[in-house]
Amino acid sequence: MGGTGPMSEEMMVRDLLALLPEAALATSAVLGLLLGSFLPRTRQWPVRLLAAAGAVTALVLTVRVWNEEARTLFDGSYGIDVGTNAIRVIVAVSLLLLLTLSLPVTRSAARESEFVVLMTLAGVGAVLLAGANDLLILICAYLLASIPLYALTAFGKDSPGTEAALKFYLFGALFGTTMLFGATLVFGAGGATDYPALTESASAAPRVALALGAVAVLGGLLFKAGALPAHFWVPDVAQGTRPEIAAFVTTIPKLGAVVAIYRLCATVLDAGDLDWRILVAVIAAATMTLGNFGAFFQSDVRRLLGYSTIGQVGFLLVGVAAAGASDMALSSVLFYLAAYALTNLGAFAVVCALPRRRAIADYTGLLHARPGVLVALVICLLGLVGTPPTAVFVGKLTVLTAAFDAGLGWLVILAILNSVASLFYYLRWIVPALRGEPAAAADDPSPAAPRIVAYVTAAGSLVLGVLAGPILNALETTQLAR
Questions:
Q1: Entry pTM
Q2: How many Å apart are CA 74 and CA 15, to the nearest integer?
Q3: What HEC string does 70-119 produce?
Q4: Domain map of the chain by residue range?
Q5: Between 37 and 220, residue with greater pLDDT
Q6: Residue 417 neighbours by CB under 8 Å, 6+ apart
Q7: Do 87 and 256 form a contact (C-beta atoms < 8 A)?
């Protein structure tokens, strides 16, 4: 559907070679599944090593082609550009951190290989979401980024995880069906599914059908991002499933979904002369506000972080709303995604390092019990607020600058107010940890792997903030491949 004609064998080989980073991750997942079938159930560490090798390979291959010219593959159905490459890098690094973070819980477990394979496949889905330049590819990527997560959410086989997985699945099925319906409408209105062809036909397409279809497709992507109106599952999953899985679910899918929203809006919707910018701006405003107010009086730290991630997606959508109207919109969104992934994983790493501390009150006196972990927690939580010199501060500053350049001054003001408001609930967590006697859970075991991830991500958040200039220059471009 769409397309520009038959591909030569040489073009096919070239396009396949361009997908080597995705292939490295997918191959490690498939080989890991096969290898896990033959290994003893209590000695499946080679599968984890294989997944780590796939992530490192994808990272190296992406860095090698970073400066190549942006282009599309397979008759315009997949884009290789700064957006896709950035998500490749962020997902690969995140997978390495998550493989380390999950060591204490899954090492030597009977289903270690299944855990690693599901996580890797979901990572591949996130990358494909970012590069999808065709509605059919987008739907396939949506499914690949969703189905493994349903299984991961219920991985603990306990009541909270099973309930969270059921809610997650029902919302995913609803918005997946909505997305399919929307893709059908867009195809009927534009006569194609690939974005290049839709860009050419959108201006002459029936506006009502195109708008309804685009909104329905956008709804599915908003579900993956955890934004309004498809956000209800996020705090339930963050609270109900295991913390290392919550770290994955609240981070990796959002990376690909936000870039997919950006790509859809900046190409198809912009060419269709639809007033999509105000719609995304309103969704961004509602998402960040609801996420922040939802976190205000949460006592469970996982549920608080769940609402926090909703608020962060609202800020990311502020940058998306500036797409096409500001030269720094794309680079600011991509940098913010990297900063958010690192900082959010760091906050969840602290939760994993203190498995018996479920409520904010349990962190009382953490300064005396675990001073190093407390430092990492403070850096990550203040980073999520947007405190200099952390990376999220630079991310927020650049997306707000892009939104201001796009004439969305009211959204900038609201975002600043939300940032100030978010400080309240993060301080509700930090202040008790800095004073008072250690809580009853002070003698809980603190696995080494999550503590290492917490230290690395906290330090990385500061380093990324300090080196923001060169990184933003590497991300600088005004548009994605078309």
A1: 0.93
A2: 7
A3: CEEECCCCEEECHHHHHHHHHHHHHHHHHHHHCHHHHCCCCCHHHHHHHH
A4: 275-482
A5: 220
A6: none
A7: yes
Length of the chain: 482
Query: How far is it, in rounded angstroms, from Cα 182 to Cα 250?
Result: 25
Question: Exposed e or buried b for every residue in 424-438, given b needs 16+ CB within 10 A?
Answer: ebbebbbebbeeeeb
Cβ neighbours of 286 (radius 10 Å): 17
**DSSP annotation of 6:** P
Q: 3 pLDDT exceeds 60?
A: no
Q: Is the pLDDT of residue 1 over 50?
A: no
Contact 76, 194 (CB under 8 A): yes
Burial 241-275 (b: 16+ CB within 10 A, else e): bbbbbbbbbbbbbbbbbbbbbbbbbbbbbbbbebe
In 3-state terms the chain splits into helix, strand, coil percentages (rounded to 5) of: 75, 0, 20
Residue type, 356: R
14 — pLDDT class (breaks 50, 70, 90): confident
Banded pLDDT at 325 (limits 50, 70, 90): confident
- The tokens describing 54, both together, are 């796939």
Contact 17, 53 (CB under 8 A): no
